[in-house]
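Input chain follows. Return structure tokens only.
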Amino acid sequence: MCTLTWQMQEGGYRLLFTRDEQRSRAPALLPQVDEKLAAVYPLDPQGQGTWIATNKQGQTWCLLNLYAEHSFESTNIRPVQTKNSRGKIILICLEQLIQSTLSDEQIKDCLQLLCESKGFTPFTLCYFPKVTEQQDYQPKYWQWNGREISQSNLPKMFTSSGKLFSEVKNNRQAVFAHMPKVNQQDAQWAFHQSHVPLKSHLSVCMHREDAKSISITEVIVKNNLQQMSYWQSSPCKADYQQPDKLIRL
């Protein structure tokens, strides 16, 4: 249950990531610099992993859950279940897949072997490479369905939901397309704060009895800047000028 948006900026990119979680889940630890991995990321104390990270090379990784209707969990085939948290995938990628010379297909092959060995539950992994030629810049995403890895180009808005996915996705796509007409100052931020059509499971800033949007993260990478800003609250309550943590690498 998360929503990701991204846009190009001069010399780089900006992405926003809303994390949706169960209300009972323990709060994440605020982003810190990992000197070993030369990266910054928040930490989920339950799984000891993360859902978003950026490094000094200007690469960013984001993780979303992949729910049953898109995976082998929706059939009679079941992926091997282990205690490995999929939140550790990004940390492994930061350690093993940081070479800029790796092709998308090589990353896909590495992820296939990793998932087969670790038995991760289904996920979507989004990857923003270092910006070199802006006109040709295209982030990718890989999906593990419990059996195999697939690869696609990442759209400007990507979302997941554990309930009524098609309805949720259609609403958020419509809001995303319309938002620049409503808020021209910062349509991307306004989108993540949105409660259209109402404060519910449908809205980008999601609110349900059992779950809600619990944080929003901004990553800006351009020229020699790698910056992560983090708000430990629902986006609708976040003050853009006052993040709970801001780190520049």
